[in-house]
From TrEMBL:
<dbReference type="GO" id="GO:0016020">
    <property type="term" value="C:membrane"/>
</dbReference>
<dbReference type="InterPro" id="IPR017853">
    <property type="entry name" value="GH"/>
</dbReference>
<dbReference type="InterPro" id="IPR013780">
    <property type="entry name" value="Glyco_hydro_b"/>
</dbReference>
<dbReference type="InterPro" id="IPR001139">
    <property type="entry name" value="Glyco_hydro_30"/>
</dbReference>
<dbReference type="InterPro" id="IPR033453">
    <property type="entry name" value="Glyco_hydro_30_TIM-barrel"/>
</dbReference>
<feature type="domain" description="Glycosyl hydrolase family 30 beta sandwich">
    <location>
        <begin position="384"/>
        <end position="441"/>
    </location>
</feature>
<protein>
    <submittedName>
        <fullName>Glycosyl hydrolase</fullName>
    </submittedName>
</protein>
<keyword id="KW-0378">Hydrolase</keyword>
<dbReference type="Pfam" id="PF17189">
    <property type="entry name" value="Glyco_hydro_30C"/>
</dbReference>
<dbReference type="GO" id="GO:0004348">
    <property type="term" value="F:glucosylceramidase activity"/>
</dbReference>
<feature type="domain" description="Glycosyl hydrolase family 30 TIM-barrel">
    <location>
        <begin position="48"/>
        <end position="380"/>
    </location>
</feature>
<dbReference type="InterPro" id="IPR033452">
    <property type="entry name" value="GH30_C"/>
</dbReference>
<dbReference type="GO" id="GO:0006680">
    <property type="term" value="P:glucosylceramide catabolic process"/>
</dbReference>
<dbReference type="Pfam" id="PF02055">
    <property type="entry name" value="Glyco_hydro_30"/>
</dbReference>
<keyword id="KW-0326">Glycosidase</keyword>
<comment type="similarity">
    <text>Belongs to the glycosyl hydrolase 30 family.</text>
</comment>
<keyword id="KW-0732">Signal</keyword>
Amino acid sequence: MLELKIFQSKGENELFVEQSLQQLTPITSDEAVTTVTLDENQTFQVMDGFGASFTDSSAYLINQVLDNEQRTEVMIKLFHPQDGIGLSVLRNPMGASDYARDIYSYDDMPELEIDTELTHFTISHDEVDIIPLLQKALEINPEIKLMASPWSAPGWMKTSGSMIAGELKREYYQVYADYFVRYIQAFERHGLLTYAVTPQNEPLYEPKHYPSMLMLPESQMVFIKDYLKPSFVKHNMDTKILCYDHNWDRPDYPLTVLEHAKDEVDGVAWHWYGGDASAQSEVLEAFADKEVHFTEGSGGEWIPPFEQAFSNVMRTGIDILRNHSKSFVLWNMALDEKIGPTVPGFGTSTCRGIVTVNQETRELNYTLDYYALAHFSKFIRPNSLRIDSSSSCEIIRSVAFRNTDDSFAVVLFNDSEEAKNVAVKLQGEELLTFRLASKGAISIKINN
């Protein structure tokens, strides 16, 4: 006998609400039924999971602004598989990003001074807020995987002499590889294993108002092939190396890197700020043994809340997974009421966090991104296997997985302007029928 567990979102005032089969809106007899068919005989990628980033700003807000009771609540609601939404992938900026209270690396030096032996290397900054929260998250959910991405090398390694803009100097490629090794070793001493790294966040974007570093594909392939991977091998590190870490609109970048450093690269990391998720499949077709990861996508004021913004996360999240990604990671875990803090000189921020922590009132709120992520992370658990799901009408978007306990997880989104009749079938057997609200989402767990 099948057992169903269901969560549904019907709009801003009814988000991720648990419902029984009897509480679902029944189909109407005068309209066609869209059938979503699940086929466990066709399988695709194994999931690592879903998550966001403990940026310096996010970690500060959760660890220092919230009180103990609030901090415990939010960590449980973010990471606990039963009492929360079970987030299981965290991407850590290596040093300052745009969402940090100041600009810092792990080896800052006075102007015109260098430290090629990395004698001044320290992760003391992260030991205040970031590391305690990572340790707490892992305590709550031991299945969490940690990724790491730098926004910039230390300024003294770069042509700009600063963490703002510029490129990595060729004479410091080995030193920078050693910098990655030091980072991984330092975090491991805190019980934190680094699952994967990328050499550079958004390597084709060189903003002048927050840490950044231009790294063209020709440079990245040399850095990975001749320096980073050999350094990992030398130190017996099995941390994965993901190339690119930028938008869908430039698949030529990872294709170039993989052509010349195929054996040294484990996969490709993607962002959603340009292009289409089909780029993930395009590169996978050329390099079928490489992993696909989605490592950053932020909601923000450029997409009006609520409906359009919620729909964007649901629609795009399903596309990301249907295009073979093993992970779906949004951006800041927390931001404040002013959409910050940001680095000095950043200007106006427009991004949205998973939660909002008001620095003046200490009020804690969960944003639409939290509930959208919940539709995926609650039932699609780590190491689940994506199975085929096909819809008789493409306006009902779907993705489905088989978990390691043999349960099935199905996420559906009605991308039309009208409510639709929906039937879900598994191996030809109809499991349930219901009416799905316009721009509504539903997550279904099917236990055998």
